[in-house]
Amino acid sequence: MALLEDKEKEIARYKRIVEESTCDVCNVNGVNPCQNNGTCVALPPDGTTQKFTCECPNNYAGDLCQTLVECKNDTCGTGATCTVFNHTTVCACPFGSTGDPTQACVYKTSTACISSDGLYTTFDGLTFSYAGTCKYYVTRSCNCDDFYVTSTNIIPENNKNISIPNQFTIYIYNQDLYINPSLILFYNNVPVNFPFYWPSAYNPLIKAEMVSGQVTIKIISLNVIVTFSKNQLCVALPHTEQFYGKDTMCGAFGNIDGDCTNDVVFENGTMIEAPADCSSPPQATVSAWVDSWIVPGENPTCIKGSMINSNMLS
Asked: Of 174, 240, 283, 305, which residue is most buried, by most CB within 10 angstroms?
């Protein structure tokens, strides 16, 4: 009888020790089983088994938060962005690009042209004709002078009602690239040979070349391409934040937002709504609009489009 009482007392003592103990499944000898600042959460007992789960920081995974989740060079496809979210890597194509982000992202582009027959097509598809010989901005950043393309036109002998480009200038990175009527390239007013690379051929930001009479200037870092051949000038711009948007690009090529009706924006900010079918606005409107983008200080002997349009009507 005394032996039984001793056993019961011993059992009671052990129960008291367990009840008063601060140890649990998430605190074994003062050690948190979860790694890398993970939070241990005790689960309801499963019979006699104590279980827990680890709530891991955003950039760790695994039962014990033992695995670092990070973006590496090969985590996502070419051109894609990588972020860590909810314990995993997430690949996405940047604004203005499309594709499978795990493979490759390609930027959408819009192209505007002046064709050799004098037809203008804006980035959003508005078409019109313009006759004038003053240097003007075909496209430029609306709110700063960090990028622009200008054109100087001639009036062909066989059609006095139009003008076609015969020289142009690109300004970017404080550098000036000019193609004259003889297709000679000038870099900051100094003639240079094709192919031309800036700042170096080893890691160029700009590349200019001429193949079969067509000049192509690529601003590699911005995915911008300008081509000029046989009095046809085209500019292709990507749908990045630098170029895409109603109030981002200005000039005779309009903006890039998929809406041709808001392309006719004068230098002073006045907008005249264009036809919804992207056909030409009235010629007087076109002449005044493009004239507003004539480069300040241009040769006073050049002929504005509005002057030619007035002579056509008289």
From this structure: 305
